[in-house]
Amino acid sequence: MLGVQPRTVRRMAETYESVFGELPRVRPEEDRSPRLWTAEAVRRVQVAHLALKSGKVSSLEHALVLVRDGAELPVVAASESGQEAATLSAQIAQLKTLLEAQGRELASLRELVQAQTRELPEVDPPAPEGEDDLRHAIREEVQAALNPERLRVALHASTPAPQRPSGWRRVLAALVVGRSRG
């Protein structure tokens, strides 16, 4: 109703309780049980909050003290807030009606498109002159390039030839192989 965050409401409740005393709790035996806001407490906080927002007071506590002491502060008219709620409710109802109408229209358009799509003949576009020859030539080149024997030869040709070790490396390799056998 105030248009504030829940944590702000909790702070307001603490301030309210410091001025007017504790609010009743849902489960009185538990300290952290949710508060029960009476209609009178809600009205008081609304009036104090409105005074704070309008700049007539410097703090919520000061506004609540003024409310407690009977000072004149701007009053929230119940009919205004009720009228706002009724206006919003009517607007929501209008939006819901429009949304439903759009949904029905969208569904009918979707059915129409599907029906028209089913009626269309399936035709491949004609190939431009000479395009079949080009496709055939490309297909033959790709098949030739992917020929397994041709790929094996190309792979073998691209593999570097093993290099024979130089003279002293051969001797060293023979010694190492000889020691490992012996």
TrEMBL record:
Give the coiled coil ranges: 92-119
> What superkingdom does the record give?
Bacteria
Keywords from the UniProt entry: Coiled coil, Plasmid
Entry keyword Coiled coil: yes
Keyword Coiled coil appears in the UniProt entry: yes
- The name under which this protein is listed is HTH merR-type domain-containing protein
Q: Which organism is it from?
A: Deinococcus aetherius
Its taxonomic placement starts with:
Bacteria, Thermotogati, Deinococcota, Deinococci, Deinococcales
